[in-house]
Amino acid sequence: MRTLLLIYNLIGTLLSAPITKDEDKIHIEGLPIDKNGELNDKFRQEILLGGEDMDEGETKNAIDKMLKECDKNEDGQLNVDEIEMRIKEKKNEHMGESIQEARDLMAQLDMDKNGKISWDEYSTWFVEKEGMDINKASGNVIGSDNTHRFEDEKTSFHRSDDNDDGQLEEDEFKVLLHPENSKKMLRKMANDVIEFMDKDKDGFVSEKEFVNGIPGEIEASMKEFEEKEKLDRKREFIEDIDRNKDGMADLEELLSYMDTTNGDNARREV
């Protein structure tokens, strides 16, 4: 009975996540949270089914396929070890795909074929991919939201430039596209979360700061959504982030939560 409840809860969680298309994605694949503290509501889909966009019917089919693939002893049920193994397999698969993705994109963007990606080469592609408008006279991105996203991406680019030569080599480019595979970059991102959400500047993120720190503005008509979001954030903080249960999240707790290569995380997700 407990195993069946686990499966039903899993299906409910995956089917309740919003179905998004590529142009709507704002999260880095493979991370449960972004640097502004926004939760990735597709994270559990990514680590169990993969990160592809799916409609409801496709999601149900993917779940059916997953259940058959995970049931190693073919007893018609899933146990904790089988689900944990699935999570680890998907994380390894994601890492391999991210490496190939970086290589393919690098070959596409490296216009001067010097084996490195400059900011000019990358930003030209980024602006086009995001559908941003450029002021031809000044060369600046048009719109405050776009400007903010553009500057954020520029900061991420230079953070990934480990040797500070203004260009990204293959390993550095991999970190830019998929920081979840870099311990160093994850630590920087965990610091970003604290800096963004730590309103009283005590060096920690309290449960209250995390729950109420929903990024962006929420319209009055979306109050029901806001309350659900707060409940989701409270549950995430208590169950997954605050390891020592002191009501505060420090850098190491946030880093552990964000580090999807951490073996303990697979067991926690189960």
TrEMBL record:
InterPro entries according to UniProt: EF-hand-dom_pair (IPR011992), EF_Hand_1_Ca_BS (IPR018247), EF_hand_dom (IPR002048)
Keywords, ordered alphabetically: Calcium, Metal-binding, Repeat
Record-level GO cellular component terms: endoplasmic reticulum
GO molecular function: calcium ion binding
BP terms from Gene Ontology: calcium-ion regulated exocytosis
SUPFAM superfamilies associated with the record: EF-hand
Pfam families per UniProt: EF-hand_7 (PF13499)
SMART domains: EFh (SM00054)
Protein name (record): 45 kDa calcium-binding protein
Organism: Pristionchus pacificus
Originating gene: WBGene00101442
